[in-house]
Design brief:
Layout lengths: L7 H7 L26 H5 L14 H14 L3 E5 L2 H11 L6 E5 L4 H9 L7 E5 L15 E7 L11 H10 L3 E5 L17 E5 L13 E5 L1 H13 L6 H12 L1 H20 L4 E5 L9 H7 L6 E6 L4 H9 L16 E5 L16 E5 L5 H16 L1
Parallel strand pairs: 2-3, 2-4, 4-5, 5-6
Antiparallel strand pairs: 1-7, 6-7, 8-9, 9-11, 10-11
Helix pairs in contact: 3-8, 4-5, 4-7, 9-12, 11-12
């Protein structure tokens, strides 16, 4: 059947699968391979034109995941990396040259900033951080040497929604490539390439995996950006193991039902938090009162389970009582899995173009697949401990 006539969830259920190539197996098997053998000298000499030539360059398992990521992100081509940070670094290095200039949102994921500050700077690349809400006003920051504009929407830890189409339109007029960290949406609730962006990156560790048991980065791009990215990718020896690719494919098949649950439960918990006297601010673009809500409605079809809130001022012992008594909410890095997480954060340490001073403790929350009533009950008990 013509894919163009299929609904999105149907496409994701079937993308990257071809049972006829694998003895009828529904899922593409795990191909653990380094050496690929060729039957004749002519075939060996023609290997540059073959898709399978060496394990680091891909196997049927990783190729299946690349195809599925293209379907998910509505992209022309895709690359896989061993982590989200590796995917970010691959993109940034692809535009690193002496004298180059990069524009990066001030709300970007911390390791992306650090790569610019500690690695790209050594190569003579200058980075300017900009207010994530600048929109088309980013044109005033563009220089003749600007090579890349980096976005993340919603922003890491503070959840500002960027005017992605406006920024992409400005970049196109100036011949500048755009890239965006699309991890928050999982690629399911937003496809930035349809909004004019050139490259979309995800930590597939999060929602593509969905089970907190693998590390993965994905790069989805337009065809004209692929060769440049692929060259950097190959030079640095970036690759993904077949077992991780298999787990990512399995996670992707349940993405539609998982993301719907994250969306509904996240909004239910966010609305409850809005009503609590211990909370002075909730940062969730799906809430009508959020500053980014209008843009979110224009650019996204839903919201994931990750958002933030700010507690009214409390001393350290009180925060300890609140967090130490948690049982359903875990405290740990990452998010996007089936389990809920609650961690304090300090976004101010990653800001230079804007100021983060919310007047209390910032908290990042990930609402997993538990019943939201149980999560709310645990948060209510946590706030009771906070007041003791």
């Amino acid at each position: 059947m013509d894919d163009e006539k299929l609904k999105y969830d149907t496409i994701l259920t079937h993308a990257g699968r071809d049972p006829s190539r694998h003895l009828g197996a529904v899922n593409t098997p795990v191909y653990r391979a380094s050496t690929i053998l060729f039957p004749t000298l002519a075939a060996l000499e023609a290997k540059e034109g073959t898709k399978l030539r060496y394990g680091r360059r891909g196997t049927p398992t990783t190729h299946a995941l690349e195809d599925a990521v293209c379907a998910l992100e509505k992209a022309d081509r895709a690359l896989l990396a061993p982590s989200g940070v590796s995917a970010i670094s691959t993109i940034l290095m692809s535009f690193a040259e002496p004298g180059a200039h990069i524009l990066m949102t001030d709300s970007a994921y911390g390791p992306a900033r650090k790569f610019c500050e500690f690695t790209l700077r050594k190569f003579g690349v200058e980075t300017t951080y900009y207010d994530p809400t600048v929109g088309a006003g980013i044109e005033a920051l563009i220089r003749p040497e600007t090579k890349l504009i980096w976005m993340e929407s919603p922003g890491s830890q503070t959840f500002e929604v960027q005017d992605v189409p406006a920024i992409a339109e400005v970049a196109r007029r100036h011949g500048i490539v755009t890239a965006i960290d699309n991890t928050w949406s999982g690629g399911y609730f937003c496809q930035p390439l349809t909004q004019g962006v050139d490259i979309s990156i995800q930590a597939g560790t999060k929602y593509i995996s969905g089970h907190s048991d693998l590390l993965l980065g994905t790069i989805a791009c337009r065809a004209e950006q692929y060769d440049r990215l692929r060259e950097t990718y190959l030079r640095f020896g970036v690759c993904v193991g077949a077992d991780d690719a298999f787990l990512a494919l399995r996670g992707l098949r349940t993405m539609a039902v998982r993301m719907a649950h994250h969306h509904q439960s996240g909004l239910e918990v966010a609305n409850w938090l809005l009503q609590q006297e211990e909370v002075c601010r909730v940062m969730h673009p799906g809430l009508p009162g959020d500053p980014g809500h209008t843009l979110w409605r224009q650019q996204f079809t839903g919201a994931s389970g990750l958002f933030g809130f700010v507690l009214r001022p409390a001393d350290r012992p009180a925060l300890g009582r609140m967090f130490d008594g948690l049982s359903l909410f875990g405290m740990g890095s990452s998010w996007g899995g089936f389990e809920s997480l609650l961690v304090p954060s300090n976004p101010s340490v990653y800001r230079s173009a804007t100021t983060w001073a919310p007047g209390g403790q910032t908290v990042r929350i990930h609402v997993g697949l538990e019943d939201p009533a149980d999560l709310i009950a645990e948060l209510r008990a946590a706030f009771d401990r906070l007041r003791e």
